[in-house]
Design a protein that fits this description.
Two copies of one chain form a homodimer.
Chain A: H1 3-13, H2 18-28, H3 37-49, E1 53-58, E2 66-71, H4 73-83, H5 95-101, H6 108-143, H7 147-192
Antiparallel strand pairs in A: 1-2
Chain B binds a DNA duplex (28 and 28 nucleotides) through helix 2 and helix 3.
Chain lengths: ~190, ~190
Amino acid sequence: MSLPHMILGILSYRGLSGYDLNKAFQASVQHFWNTEQSQIYRALHKLHEQGWVGIEHVAQEDAPDKKIYHLTEQGRAELHRWIVAPQPIPTLHEGWLGQLFFGAEADVQSLQHLLEERIRVMQALIENYETNVASGGARYAIEFDAADDLAYWMLTLDYGIQKARFDVQWAESAIRTLEQRAKEQGVHEASSHE
Amino acid sequence: MSLPHMILGILSYRGLSGYDLNKAFQASVQHFWNTEQSQIYRALHKLHEQGWVGIEHVAQEDAPDKKIYHLTEQGRAELHRWIVAPQPIPTLHEGWLGQLFFGAEADVQSLQHLLEERIRVMQALIENYETNVASGGARYAIEFDAADDLAYWMLTLDYGIQKARFDVQWAESAIRTLEQRAKEQGVHEASSHE
DNA sequence: AGCGACATGTAAGCGGTTACATGATTCT
DNA sequence: AGAATCATGTAACCGCTTACATGTCGCT
């Protein structure tokens, strides 16, 4: 949807090669946006066609030659336009909600296991956010000389952490709801046998 | 990702034409999964090729002829398999987080407006969930004779509502954080003028 | 005659993933 | 000699969106 603009954002810190851009991507916005390297090159070509980035060819002796991409004036203008432009709110599109939706087709225990697994994954995610991602962000703030930006980076990271915590809590309460339902059904079945 | 399985799920209630399936989609899972009508027909063809749905041609006099799609045994087996199969957790991929991430390129007020707008949209969403979607679900439970399923439907709806509430709360706290920062910066600037 | 509901599709294009493809340099 | 890192891309495929395309029937 807005990958090109994410790239413009990273390049606003400094000009980068596609290779370095990819690494910067993995290290900075990876907690809410993931991309394949191949896509970055294609997006870069498009941004160049559009006149939003310029290319500087750099010959190297100790490594293969490379191309440094940097923002043009139009590119920076487009970035500024985009940053405050209303964004569409995407639908959730989450498979596990579909599983729950059709949960009556499965047995309650399987659904509970599904939710427990989800809790485990989410907790691992939170731990990763709190250790690797946070420190990675701090490192990048120094590398890109972007002290002002760090606070914003941490704000988005905070969203990721809080949202994952919310998911854990919701899953826990859903497990309890299912537990309750299983008990009630048990009672009904028992009484119908009398 | 799992649109075919969402279709299998809906068809597990009863056989439907593509047209009715589309309507059922809009009325039931619309709060976490949206689809275009054209996609449903294509998915249906694929499901048929795979042997997961059968087609029954129905001639009508008071309306155009139609095709009723219904689950085959394999289709039902596949649905049961999928419901308890681990799902990948997609990354957030939300544009507004990108805007915030690169927030240092914009002024604080614009970002606050962005968040306020987000709050408004989310609150409208919540209201819609609580009125239209909830009652629509109840209606469909009767139509599909799916009283057992209703509880699960409401569970996913609850997630949608709680998640939207979480988003509102987070946005409110983010606005306060930005407010704070703007004040501190104001102080710094004022003191640097002395 | 016109509109809304019923009914089924195709075509073009975009964004994204996975896999493939190549080649230099540096370190072990 | 082999592995890791630096560096840049192409090709095939898939899912989804937007727009197009066609036609019936019943009601007003």
